[in-house]
Amino acid sequence: MIELQSSYNATMVVLSCLIASIASYTGLSMALQYAAASKGRARLAWLACGTAVMGAGIWAVCFYEINAYKWSTGIDYDYCTVILTLTIAATSAALILRAVSRSKLRKRALLLRGGIAGICAAVLPYAGLNAMRCSLLPRFDTATFVSFTLGVAFMFIVVLWIAYKFQTSRGPRRKAIAGVLLGTAFTASIHIGLALASWSSPEDVPAAGQSGSSAMISFFLGFATLFVIGIAFASIFMERFWKAQMRRQLERDMRIESLFRHSQDAVFSYSLDGKLLDANLAAFRLTGYDWEALSKLKLKDMISPEYRHTVAVNFQHTITGHSRNFDCALIHRGGQRLEVNNTNVPVLVEGQVVGVYTIVRDITERKQAEWQMNYMAHHDELTGLPNRRLFEQQLVKAIADQQQDGQSAAVLFLDIDRFKLVNDSQGHDVGDLLLRSVADRLSDAVKHAGIVARLGGDEFSVLLTGGTSREEAQAIAARINRELDIPFSLRGKDVHITASIGIALFPEDGDSLISLMKNADTAMYSAKENGKNTYNFYDLSMNDSLFERVQLENELRKALDRGEFFLVYQPQVELATGKVVGVEALIRWQHSSKGLISPAEFIPLAEETGMIVPIGEWALRTACTLARRWSHSEVGPLRMSVNLSSRQFVSPHFAESVERIVRETGMSPELLDLEITESMTMDVSRSIETLRQLKTLGVSISIDDFGTGYSSLSYLKSFPVDRLKIDQSFVRQMHSETKDRSIVATIISLAHNLNLQVVAEGVETLSQSEFLAQHGCDEMQGYYISKPLKAYDIETFITARLAR
Fold first, then answer.
1. Cα distance between residue 97 and residue 36, in whole Å
2. CATH 3.20.20.450 given to domain 555-803
3. Structurally, what CATH architecture does the domain formed by 263-368 represent?
4. Architecture of the structural domain at 379-539
5. Lowest-pLDDT choice from 52-61, 667-676, 705-714
6. First to last CA, the chain
7. Which residue in 94, 275, 453, 526 is a FRET match for 389, CA 20 to 30 A apart?
8. C-alpha to C-alpha distance for 801 and 797, rounded to whole angstroms
9. Does the reported pTM lie above 0.70?
10. Could you tell me which residue ranges the GGDEF domain spans (predicted)?
11. φ and ψ at 2, to 5 degrees?
């Protein structure tokens, strides 16, 4: 027997231990970091790489240990047995790396894998010795081999358990310790296994010389060493790169997790089959559910029924890998409806969609704002009725529907008569109340037969559909007239208005939006010309009348500049003496081509267009100029009565304009008498203020057409007026109507009780004059005295009266 221990190379042993530790550390790095963080084929690839590096290192250690002995004879190798040793080393490495890379290592797996790995490590040195072909033969004691194998198996179970415990941190220090332990365990088992072998040199075995196989083994040992060291260095750089990648991935994951958890928008995580996997706090706040209740709900249970199909379609589209954004409505746990915006985002892992994120934002307030803006864009702010835009849209739609069904329709245009007077005299706040009340009555009158809209100002419209006949449109128009003719009670005052209505029928009067609205408007103006408070159906002849009205309006705007207006004067006589005490100035229009145009024709047009203000100021200035001239002539000073329009009277600077005209013309203000109507005094506080300003100037005030207005008599005592003028409609019927005689007598008595003078208009007969004288009327005017005369003629008339 031959003892070899004394010929052992210690440097080779240290080198073997170092290589084993490096190989173990590198293999652990690949198994603990790269393979554990991967899945599928990538995990298997990393484990295979780790096994190759660790197995190569252990195999190299085995043959380094064998070559550490100083053999006294030549050595050759059997390559089949050499490959077997490499397989044994790789098997041991694979068992160890597979075990430590698991997230959980059971006791049974620990014992089985660690034990087998230890057995492989114990068998490895003996297999390496048997790969040698030389003159020396290894001898093994069976009991010693079994004891050695069991000891190595136990040692590897312990080392494997320590390495597995260290894998949870995956830190470089612990991995280094685990690598050194494994490397030391492999080196120790190989070294001890070789040391336990004994050798013999039989005589019949020829001495083996140095052959190519020994050199080849040396080459492979060098290659394996370089391979292990190279992979070790590469692993260091890979570990740094991997850690940087992991840090970035961890940061990205933490950002995503933070975004998910702390987002102000609700975020839901769903599986591909629509099962809720997770939700953030905002989702609980949005829906009102906690996690336990929310996880039991199906996706459709939270969706408003009309949006369930939309949600399902978008979800299916998302799981194909496409993001989707859409609006829908959720049902809160408390039952209220929430308008939301959804963004579906596919969750991709290695290019495969594995789930869906749904980001939900509450847009209820935004939707309500949009609805409010849309409502405001299509409805009148004051009355809440549809405005012109919505009315025209509905009319266009109705025309298309009626044409398809072959049914008729009707468009009604309404204009409130005398609204401008109410608005100017009572104030815009009362005017607004009146418009709202009119809107309510129109809606009640039309009911479900059509759509009521406010086009602007005091203009309203009604659209009647569903096969409306001429008779049905007429019935509704008549009902509207009746409803609006009933006085409105506004802030304790009764306000009386009427409406003029124009009706255009589809398709007789037009088959388009423009034609129907134009013709209904034309019919409405015809109703105004026919006395107001009525309705007219459109007729082709109305176009001529409308054209004339438009032409007259254009001519009216030029008449003042052309000097076509002139004044006539009707004398006012004192009943007791027959003396002319004043005149009333009346305006006339002498058109250059059309001749004399009646005031009843152009005065309402002037009121409507606003031209009455400059025309009225011209009339006042002309009358004052003439009154001043009379004061210095044989005619003598006479009271000059001038009629005011409502637009003039409600002007905030009216009193200032009167004062300026009186001053510029040099007329004595005591000779100026301004006539207003009862209707102009409906806004009592404003009227009193204006009248007081005028009285301060020294002019006198008369209430014209007394008895035909709507103001309360209780306010008459508060007005600073000088006289009442009895309307000619009462005077004219005194002898045929007992009631009219009573009214005239009552007005005279009322005025005298209030210390007011009384002027009767429209006196045409002696009997009328006598009746007025008997009841104490102060003055009168009318054709019984004289018709209105031009300035020269009235001067002649007055001087003739004075000469009597």
1. 10
2. yes
3. 2-Layer Sandwich (3.30)
4. 2-Layer Sandwich (3.30)
5. 705-714
6. 186
7. 526
8. 6
9. no
10. 407-540
11. -120, 130
